[in-house]
Design brief:
Aldehyde Oxidoreductase, domain 3, 2 domains, TIM Barrel, alpha/beta, about 40% helix
């Protein structure tokens, strides 16, 4: 993860600073103290990213954190204090805040939904619907919010959907080929109806079944007929307004793309102290 953070931060700083921060050249380069303040309830994530943003500009800068990744904060809470040259801090400020705001948004949203289904056995999963370049970072944020990671990418899990099966010829052949070629890789099969689910339940070597866009009544039946056979994952059209109902059907997992895709940045600000 450390190498990934370094690459991501270097790219972000490069696209922001370019040939140089013109505005900061107008500042007197004096030592100052600054604070980052959170303006709303949130679960913080992205501290390593923020640290590297500042330290990449000036390795001598000092940052003292009052929180850690996964910490709950309230409006007005000071999450860190920064000691360094004014030019350094204002140059790194925007990129550092971007990482903190985006990743904290994902961890906060995750924590909210995890809290809603805490009275059920369902575990909340993320998806591959992430911001390009921030896949591992956002999935880390999901874990900070109490969620569970789905597959990281196309390389660590086989997920058979309708188009895959149509291309190969049959689901049975798809599973057989997957087991032969990748015997240690998890296999998830997506189904779109109870009839498809029933046909899959008779097959072997599957890790779990994803029920896509099932209604609540159909999902209840899906859980009943698959009990003791395969774990069930629900996905599609699930949000904070209906997640409790979906979780109460008895599913083992609920996957939601909006954890990483449809997020609102957490309100953070950096201010200089007199």
């Amino acid at each position: 993860m450390k190498n990934d953070i370094k690459k991501i931060v270097q790219l972000a700083i490069s696209e922001d600073i370019g040939d140089g921060d013109l505005t900061s050249t107008l500042l007197e380069n004096k030592m100052i103290v600054a604070e980052i303040v959170c303006r709303e309830n949130a679960v913080i994530c992205g501290i390593d990213f923020a640290n590297l943003c500042f330290l990449s500009i000036d390795p001598k800068i000092q940052i003292t954190w009052n929180v850690e990744d996964g910490s709950n904060v309230i409006p007005g809470q000071i999450i860190c204090r920064i000691y360094g040259f004014a030019k350094t801090i204002v140059t790194a400020e925007r990129v550092a805040l971007n990482f903190l705001q985006i990743l904290s948004a994902t961890s906060t949203k995750t924590a909210e939904l995890v809290g809603l289904i805490s009275g059920t056995k369902a575990k909340l999963l993320d998806t591959r619907k992430t911001i390009p370049g921030l896949r591992k970072a956002q999935k880390y944020a999901v874990k900070c919010g109490g969620g569970v990671n789905h597959r990281m990418g196309l390389y660590d899990c086989i997920m058979l959907k309708e188009n895959h099966i149509l291309t190969i010829g049959s689901l049975e052949d798809s599973i057989k080929d997957a087991v032969i070629n990748f015997p240690k890789i998890p296999i998830i099969v997506e189904v779109e109806s109870l009839d498809e689910l029933k046909s899959v339940l008779s097959m072997t070597n599957i890790t779990r079944i994803l029920c896509d866009n099932f209604s609540i009544p159909d999902l209840i039946e899906a859980v009943q007929i698959s009990s003791g056979v395969y774990p069930i994952e629900a996905s599609g059209g699930i949000n904070e307004d209906n997640i409790i109902q979906y979780a109460e059907t008895g599913v083992d997992f609920i996957s939601i793309g909006s954890l990483t895709k449809d997020i609102r940045s957490i309100d953070l600000s950096l201010r200089f102290l007199d």
